[in-house]
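Bit of a strange request maybe. I'm writing a small parser for structure token strings and I need a real example to test against, not something I typed by hand. Could someone generate the tokens for this chain?
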Amino acid sequence: MGNNIEALLKPQSVVVVGASAQAGKIGNVILQQVVKGKFRVYAVNPKGGEACGLPLFASLRDLPEVPDLAVIALPAIPTLGAAQECVQLGVKAIVAIAGGFGETGEAGHALEMQLADLLRGSQTRLLGPNTLGLLVTENGLDTNFLPSERMRRPDAGNIAILSQSGSVAVGEMDSMALTGISISAFVGFGNRLDINENELMDYFDADPGTAVLAMYLESFADPEGFLERCRRIVPHKPVILLKAGRSEAGARAVQLHTGSLAGSDRVTDGALRQVGVIRVYDTYELLDAARVLAFLPPIYDRRVAVLTNGGGWGIIASDFIESTGRGIGARLAVLSEETKEKIASSAVAFAAVRNPIDLTGSLNNAMCDAALAALQDDPEVDVILYTLGFQAPAVDEGLVDIIIHWAKNGKKPLIVVPVGSDIVLSAMQKFNAAGVPAYPTIWRGVQAIDTLAKRGEALRKIRAAQADPVETAGAIAPTLRPGTPVGEYEVKAALREVGVNVPKSIALRPGEQLQAVPLNYPLVVKISSAEILHKTEQKGVLLGIRDRNELEAAVADMRSRFATGDILIEEMEGRGVEMIVGLVRDSTFGLALMCGLGGTTAELYQDVTFRKLPITRRDADEMLRELKGHKLLEGFRGIKTDREGLIDLLVKISRFGEFYQDDILQMDLNPVIVQPERAVAVDAKILWA
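Reply from user aminoacidic:
Good idea to test on real output. This should exercise your parser:
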């Protein structure tokens, strides 16, 4: 590939530096794994001797060839000397196993910088330090220092696991191997001194043996680069991400509502949604999602047929499927009469053939075969969930074979939840080895359905964008001067320039007298000052002014309480659905757009969603659909709103943010009142970076 990542993952020759003949030592465990691979293997230890049937060379310089890959199994300080020798000899790639570097504090960070200096200007690439290294099943490359009797290695498959933490992945890989799930590779990049997730994504994007990328990250080495790769990869390979560190606040300045509503994770979540990444929150979810996407095609609707031989299991599955709280918000398929008749023809008389389908404890092979056959041709079924209890007398290994047959040859994706004890482990191994996703709990099986649906939604969005590309918006040039504090009147004037609806208004400068007011009553009187961010709390807003006398009194009252700042007089807008729209600078992804239910209760309800700039109309529409209160914009109880006008406003604020991309810290439009005919921003503030 020109960057020596190929030498890291598919070397022709490997050396273990720090190899040992002493059982239990890391250098011995690693060498035992490496000698099983399909490449030439060497071992280095100054003491000489023999280990794992190989001679121990005293130095890298004594090897008969310069190896492609060096696995350094030494403590932190000796790792520096070994790495220097690798660079001098022209070794293409290094795996630095040792901890004790940047993760340990100042002294470790200094060592890490020395390691970086050694690599600078060379062609040698480094994975780590502080890493388990990698496992590539195609060629048997395994640098993990955990003995195989303590951590099973998965067989060859098509899932690549890329992890910033080794410990997060090893336990799940152990259980994957136990239940017959396979991978193409595991790569732990540890401290990420050199090789990072973006380069590895490039490699596995091009790897024909990898169908799914499953990733664990605590931070992004290059956030923009990560998103760019996701845009390129997701259309043909699913990317699943467990992003840890959700609780750390990413937006430090929270003077405005937008900042206080953002935090770090909401912007991250919105950016991942934009590029079609499937996000999960636990290690088992990461590998569960990877497994179902490696085995099954996406689904484009959420109509589920539940098949079981235990009525209670069917009810539990139905709750998980249809609930929007502890569930996935899908729905049970409504089976055709023909389907129900076919199922009933081979079932016992007291079986339930409506969905969920309960074939009862009398289940046998013929009933299972008939039910699965009947579901294949029902157009109302998108996916089948089979909760199979092995306790029934007639259930045997033959039933497993029938399920595998329909999973491989049928028309509907099939997910299995075997229920039982010893026999279940054997069944799960058989299912997974055959490419049939099997899960140990009903909830995990239902989550797998949700994953297939999310993948389908992402692909539908991508195809719609490809079929109807969004035209590039024309240039805009608002007249605000970045860095100069501005009040509401100036902000609204700039918004008006880019086509955002704002109320008709005039401003009285300090000392200026009230003259004729070319506005329609009722009016609103506000203080407009860059120093006053929350006018309502300081009684800086007076509403419902009906005539000239009330207006004069309101202006006099406002001026008596606020010696500086402009007095803004506006036409009072009619009722509508109050929204909040804003811009916020995120520490990871830069400027992001926010939208949610607004008004004085915005921070109370926290019903908001975010997207990284720039956004399209499709992004804006998706943002509105994500809100819990989205029905308020869709005719709930006869409420009429200009939803398309709100989408227009969101796109215009995105363009506004792009123009001031490097200048805005936060911006609030709260509330934006969505009326039947238009969406209008009745309050606006900006904080410059």
